[in-house]
Amino acid sequence: xxxxxxxxxxxxxxxxxxxxxxxxxxxxxxxxxxxxxxxxxxxxxxxxxxxxxxxxxxxxxxxxxxxxxxxxxxxxxxxxxxxxxxxxxxxxxxxxxxxxxxxxxxxxxxxxxxxxxxxxxxxxxxxxxxxxxxxxxxxxxxxxxxxxxxxxxxxxxxxxxxxxxxxxxxxxxxxxxxxxxxxxxxxxxxxxxxxxxxxxxxxxxxxxxxxxxxxxxxxxxxxxxxxxxxxxxxxxxxxxxxxxxxxxxxxxxxxxxxxxxxxxxxxxxxxxxxxxxxxxxxxxxxxxxxxxxxxxxxxxxxxxxxxxxxxxxxxxxxxxxxxxxxxxxxxxxxxxxxxxxxxxxxxxxxxxxxxxxxxxxxxxxxxxxxxxxxxxxxxxxxxxxxxxxxxxxxxxxxxxxxxxxxxxxxxxxxxxxxxxxxxxxxxxxxxxxxxxxxxxxxxxxxxxxxxxxxxxxxxxxxxxxxxxxx
Length: 470
Hints:
The chain is α/β, with parallel strands linked by helices. Helix content is 36%, strand content 14%. α4 (114-127) packs across α6 (156-176) and α7 (233-242) crosses α8 (253-269).
């Protein structure tokens, strides 16, 4: 098919020493051990903006990976996304040294309340001048639930029921509590806000109760750009209703293309334009001036990938204890309370058995998503092919060795994509939402269910409403 839109990229990272590839923090050229310093993040943000990337996508996990061997010891010893820092706190520093770069921040709603949460993200939207996005996650680690005083986390589908309720309350706060024009800032008249244009939210529902005025004045986007990564059956329905951008995985083009079709169909069934959602596939990219040099880098990096750490990570993601498997055994389908779509990709959707040992390697199988190694021409060709054959809009670039991997992509791949006419040569003006959806304006599109909570807006046919009225 002909490409109807330009490729888009996020730099995918985490406020932890290790992210998707366990062990690479130990590489002698890797700077990720400095994950808890502002210098690390400021430098990273400047590189991403130099490459005209759409944003930095910050992953997060609430809890400890303790499925592998029924113990957290492997995760603790090998820095498997632990320790990790609160990602929202570093955004302001990165925003200060950039002008256009967006920030997608993962925040788990299961242990939040909409009233305090809405203020936090309104504040971030103000401080970034409309460049903030929220990656909506519901959490899947029982260790996190126990840390918060619960015996275990909610069941998989119940988490999404609660998330629907959370979003409804948040939409009411972001979109409906303050009318346009409520803020006057009239020094002479000594009137900061017109009380007639500020309204209390009354949300009474099974999971959340809110009675109060939103604490923050309307921000440039009001509702942050909404990311989501759920691709299970229930997750797809939730994402099709709420998400404006979705993060996907799939180790082959047919697997990824099937997921894309399912999501776009679900969006259409929910009353939305299927292309009102930007789809980003995870991608591991190793690039060098020549293919031979890129393969040398792959061999170098591979030596530092930690087998036990990688399996501990995958055990946490899937809910399957891979310490009980032999390396030559294939993954078996097991329904769990964790990331169901990942288990489905390894088993039900895969055209060949996926062996446990292969999952712990820096390879196409281990990547669980596009894995591209080569010269700038090789990489550009392959990324375009993935986009064309799967209908994704772009890619989340997995962190490898920082800063050299992102530098190489920006210096080598971006110019090649620009020369092929599939990548921008300058940023557009506007908020993160306006950059991802040119011509739409800074607010949620009228077909999005959240827009129906805006004062004076007609109710959307796919709006999520509780029994309680405002």
